[in-house]
Design goal:
The chain has 74 residues and is α/β, with parallel strands linked by helices. The chain has 3 helices and 4 strands. Strand 3, helix 3 and strand 4 form a beta-alpha-beta unit. The longest helix has 10 residues. The protein is globular, with a radius of gyration of 11 Å.
Length: 74
């Protein structure tokens, strides 16, 4: 299984990542962000997050079993 790069957050901010080959997880609300985070595949190694998605996930990002995350600038 190959490693996956994902991008999670508002669709308008993620379109460029699709062109780069990342798996896109569109989430417009906090509940959608949490659902998308839980649905990430086990081989996700890097997840790009919009600032809003990162805020919604909060402490979940500190879990040592979570993939590495990068928060996009505001």
């Amino acid at each position: 299984m190959t490693d996956t790069v994902a991008a999670l957050g508002e669709q308008a901010l993620l379109e460029g990542f699709r062109l780069a080959g990342a798996s896109i997880y569109v989430a417009e609300t906090d509940d959608e962000v949490h659902s998308a985070w839980m649905a990430l595949p086990g081989n996700a190694v890097v997840v790009f997050l919009t600032p809003r998605a990162a805020a919604a996930l909060g402490a979940l990002l500190a879990d040592s079993h979570s993939p590495m995350t990068v928060v996009l600038p505001s």
